[in-house]
Amino acid sequence: MKIPVTGFVVDSGDQDAHHSHKLYITSWNGNPVHVHAFSGVTSVDDGHSHEYASWTAPAPTGVPHVHGYYTVTSLNLGHTHLIQGTTGPAIELPGGGHYHRFEGYTSINGRNPHSHAYSGRTGNEVGG
Length: 128
Hints:
This protein is an all-beta fold. Helices cover 0% and strands 45% of the residues.
């Protein structure tokens, strides 16, 4: 099955052989896409916590959906952790729009290898 996707690519402007491009998807199967901001503070493990903030991956607007997410925590005690996963389904807001819940565990890292729990809810949708 082929799904029509529209968007655009932005060149990073680097002149070396390892330059990069960013792909911005603007519609998926005829539906505009949107993203959500998410942020929070991890649980306290090994005597510390980490902060995180980013945007979800885009998803189609107006249909049942979830979002992927990925970010790196703040640097604390000489290390960071990866946070990645998939949100829960959309939860409608009374004034319009929606949010998603997310939760999980970070990657294992640190001088004393450990992970942190995290959970929260995204902000309202942006775009679409």
